[in-house]
Specification:
Number of domains: 2
Strand content: 5-15%
Distance between the termini: 27 Å
Number of helices: 16
Radius of gyration: 23 Å
Number of strands: 12
Shape: globular
Order of helices and strands: EHHHHHEHEEHEEHEHHHHHHEEHEEEH
Strand order of the largest sheet: 8-9-7-12
């Protein structure tokens, strides 16, 4: 399989053209046990990776932290997909239902006309996997396949693989690709930039708002790329040290860890709560219902629904003005949907969509301090020299740069343009990468998404991804001189907007590591 894996070599127009499909592979801890990787090598892996995501449920907020754990109580994950519900069962040392290998196949569209259909190479690569599994000899003792594709994906438990695809929108008779997930919110905008990720000329533009803010007299107007070792093992990190790794060093170098999580979106609940809360907001602030709904969604996320940041365009009127200027307003979508869609995508790639800080908005009157965006990337908000009653232009991201993660969210669900509900199958398949699952992903998930103390919000959780069953408030502050009224949203304790449907921790090996495992030469001595 190693020959089919897509490497990090940059694509160009000559000798390494962008392929129609890409393939990548990762291994769970039990997968490396099955591959008979040296015990000494396995022992030195991080404990959270060894335990796996299921065992970390209380840390991640996947289980109700207000309840005491009971022996043999497995009902807390009954809503998970079958493949993850039966993975790493407690009190076992491994079963036939454990997930050992994770494979992703990404595909371009079939053509510029058939947006919603994958390129024919997608099915070829899938068939390659099927055939490869059949070639592996069966176990001589049990007669079971040596390697088999686990066809227990999805809520049905009968899917050959977890499908995912861009969300497409219909404007009149025109179907256009969208950067949105199923709540109708733009996603995938602010991934971090690290050293060596881009050529210098590209880095100069990409790093603004996506790197670390140091001071205005350094780097690209204050922004610098984050240390490579925060995301790729074997390279210096922000502590100027090599991330902890097992032996031999070349086995871990250029690899990374990934948290794979399937997140189901309860679309009906989300729309209902926003609509009901908007009625009160509209009445208090004397604005139309539709405008109130857009404002509340923006105040929950930290961006307007099309990805425009609240920190730079905090009012409804300033947002509409930018849409018109950039060519993706409602009128633009009505006149030429395809042109407007690509104008929106182009804007999301600019520095204007990400080049902002929070030191000038300590009270969250522009972007609420407890919004999703400020929780997952605190930027300069937590600088210890900040004053809650004043602005701090010298604030840096020193307490944030070690908590960044690379993420890819792939929407899944039908593209039939029928109305989505809580019961239909849709959401986002998340891949979250970093050198330390504990310091990066788990910290953000536990301390910033499922807890609010760093944002002066007590136990109130993230308004979008958090568990609202115990604490369901989201406070929206306003500038006193604006004439507006502060508002507290009640997110509802009956059902969360997002439910976890399972997942696992994986190690993404380098090409060298893949070769070492294939040849059986992982020697920690």
């Amino acid at each position: 399989m190693r020959k089919e894996v897509t490497t990090a070599a940059r694509w160009n127009d000559t000798d390494n053209i962008k392929p129609a499909t890409t393939m990548n592979v990762a291994l769970s801890f039990l997968g490396m046990v099955k591959l008979r990787v040296s015990t000494k090598t396995l022992q030195a892996f991080p404990p959270e990776f060894i335990e796996g995501m299921r065992a970390r449920a209380f840390v991640l907020g996947d289980r109700d932290t207000a309840k005491v754990e009971k022996d043999h109580d497995h009902s807390w994950c009954d809503h998970w997909d079958k493949i993850w519900r039966e993975n790493r069962l407690p009190f076992t040392l491994g079963t036939d239902t454990d997930v050992h290998i994770w494979v992703s196949i990404n595909s371009q569209s079939e053509s510029a006309i058939e947006w919603s259909k994958p390129h024919p190479n997608f099915e070829k690569q899938t068939q390659f996997l099927r055939d490869l599994c059949k070639k592996v000899p069966k176990c001589p003792l049990t007669g079971k396949p040596g390697v088999e594709l686990m066809t227990t994906n999805g809520q049905s438990g009968k899917d050959e693989y977890q499908s995912a695809n861009a969300v497409f929108e219909k404007h009149g008779d025109v179907v256009v690709p969208s950067p949105n997930e199923h709540f109708g919110l733009a996603d995938g905008i602010g991934d971090p930039v690290f050293e060596g990720q881009y050529p210098p000329d590209v880095e100069r533009e990409k790093v603004r708002g996506r790197g670390k803010w140091m001071s205005a007299d350094r780097g690209y107007e204050g922004w610098e790329p984050i240390a490579t070792g925060e995301f790729i093992l074997g390279h210096p990190d922000e502590s100027q040290e090599l991330p902890p790794a097992t032996l031999p060093p070349e086995f871990m170098r250029n690899g990374t860890f990934m948290a794979y999580r399937k997140l189901h979106e309860n679309v009906t609940t989300f729309k209902k709560v926003v609509s009901e809360q908007a009625k009160d907001y509209a009445k208090i602030n004397k604005v139309p219902q539709e405008q109130a709904e857009e404002i509340l969604k923006a105040k929950m996320v930290g961006r307007w629904s099309d990805g425009v940041p609240l920190s730079k365009y905090p009012t409804y009127d300033s947002w509409i003005a930018l849409q018109t200027k950039m060519g993706f307003s409602a009128a633009d979508f009505k006149a030429n949907p395809m042109k407007a869609a690509f104008a929106q995508l182009a804007y999301m790639k600019t520095s204007d969509a990400v080049d902002f800080k929070y030191g000038d908005d300590m009270k969250g009157t522009k972007c609420p301090t407890t919004s999703h965006l400020r929780r997952v990337n605190t930027r300069d908000y937590l600088d210890p020299t900040n004053d809650v009653d004043g602005d701090n232009p010298d604030a840096t991201t020193q307490l944030n740069k070690r908590r960044r993660i690379m993420r890819r969210g792939l929407p899944y669900g039908a593209n039939d343009f029928k109305e989505k509900t809580d019961d239909t199958e849709q959401g986002v398949a998340m891949m979250l990468l970093g050198a330390s699952l504990f310091r990066q992903f788990e910290f953000i998930q536990q301390q910033w998404i499922q807890y609010g103390m760093d944002f002066h919000a007590g136990n109130n959780t993230c308004p979008l991804l958090g568990d609202h069953t115990n604490h369901d408030r989201h406070t929206i502050a306003v500038e006193p001189k604006s004439g507006g009224c502060p508002f507290t949203m009640q997110l509802g304790k009956e059902k969360n907007f997002v439910d976890v449907r399972g997942g696992e921790y994986f190690f993404i090996p380098s090409m060298t590591s893949l070769r070492m495992m294939a040849m059986g030469t992982v020697d920690p001595t």
